[in-house]
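Design job #97: recover the sequence.
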């Protein structure tokens, strides 16, 4: 009977599991250590586990732990297309962009079985799309305006866009026994 109950609970949990935690490994901007190792979900070696393994913070040494990191994105996106059917020939647009500053800061304080934690990071965005000579989007908008007879033509188009999600987190952790810890935290995306 106990085996049936355990199997039933496991099936229920698997059937009702949602996407709540599905993306944690793909959000690379949360820690420079994640870029270095590719996995931080079971780590207990640095303060960046505030966002990956908050229960494991109690395994850090007593006192303050600070983790400061930065990521640099060097990108050269390029796209080409052919609008011959619409009166334009083949087009190609590219950018040579480097985003120098994508920081993260984490701090923990441990005392016996208790720990407090806080952090700042960028879980999404942070890069700038800068096409000084336009892109397919600006060409398509311009074509639509010309076809709608709003303008006779257009020149000098450009595209510059930026998106950044600044995030603050804080909370606490309690070590129940040698194998189980519990954490409660809040995150605020600015």
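Job complete. Output follows.
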């Amino acid at each position: 009977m106990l085996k049936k109950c355990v199997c039933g609970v496991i099936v229920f949990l698997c059937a009702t599991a949602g996407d709540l935690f599905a993306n944690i490994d793909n959000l690379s901007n949360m820690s420079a250590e994640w870029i270095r190792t590719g996995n931080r979900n079971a780590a207990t070696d640095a303060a960046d586990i505030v966002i990956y393994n908050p229960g494991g913070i109690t395994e850090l040494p007593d006192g303050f732990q600070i983790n400061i990191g930065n990521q640099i994105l060097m990108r050269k996106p390029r796209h080409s297309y052919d609008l011959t059917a619409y009166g334009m020939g083949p087009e190609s647009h590219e950018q040579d962009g480097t985003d120098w500053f994508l920081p993260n800061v984490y701090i923990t304080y441990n005392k016996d079985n208790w720990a407090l934690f806080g952090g700042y990071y960028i879980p999404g965005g942070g890069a700038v799309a800068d096409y000084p000579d336009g892109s397919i989007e600006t060409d398509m908008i311009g074509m639509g305006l010309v076809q709608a007879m709003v303008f006779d033509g257009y020149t000098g188009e450009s595209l510059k866009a930026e998106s950044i999600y600044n995030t603050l987190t804080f909370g606490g952790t309690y070590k129940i026994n040698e194998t189980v810890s519990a954490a409660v935290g809040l995150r605020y995306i600015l």
